What we know:
The protein is mainly alpha-helical and 200 residues long. Helices cover 80% and strands 0% of the residues.
Amino acid sequence: MKNKRILLTAGKYFLIFLGSVIYAVGFSYITYPNDVPTGGVNGVSMIINAFTGLPVGTMSIILNIPLFIIAWIKFGRGFVIASLAGTVLSSLSVDALNLFPYVLTTEPLFICVYGGILMGVGLGIVYRVGATTGGTEIVVKLLKLKYAHMNTGTIMFIVDLIIICAYSVIFDKINSALYALITVFLMSKALDIVLYGFSQ
């Protein structure tokens, strides 16, 4: 029984690692080098930075702290530990890939399609084992409690839509935002397919 529990736990964290790497490939090699914003806590941090001058990285940490505290209260220690692992592994994966900079494509359509699908599949794998990569994904899970009838990907799309629209207005990057909306839409659909299957 103990060995089985160890194997299940090891399998869970391997999938968190795998999902984080897949997400990082889509982000580091497709969307980020092509200046396509994808919402999330980083998007919020960039907006706050525009008004306050506070560093984006510092703001991301500050915003994550209350989210993890709320997650601990609502979902328990196991979820928080798994999500911390997802947060750390996804960040490390992005940083590791950035050591070997590469742009898979600069074709706008391919950026939206393959960037969105890769990031959505990666996040879906992490979600499927009961974790997140932190940030607005915790917000999405909290909103899922209230709007249980909505798919996780749909809620994520709405949250990211709000952030991207604000980003585009503040930084006057309308074209980037329009590509980002397609990317985030496909990301949300890929995430839902991983979570709920192709019947969705």
